[in-house]
Amino acid sequence: MTGAWRRLHGHRHDTALFADLAEIDRRPNELDQKLDQLPTKQELADALRAFADQLDAPANPTAPAPDPEPDAS
Fold it and tell me: Rounded to 5 degrees, what are φ and ψ at 55?
């Protein structure tokens, strides 16, 4: 192997290394941004409560609620 080939080959390797380092530096910033977009525990709990309230609500809010059945005493 000649010195010129080694310099050329080494240069390509260094360029790839710098690209890898840039990627390593970039990824945590992207992940931090994605984490900031996730809902908090409180927001998830509030959404779940609201969903449960919708399930408990009557299907037709304008229809009158049915009369409770009398006790069979």
Answer: -70, -35
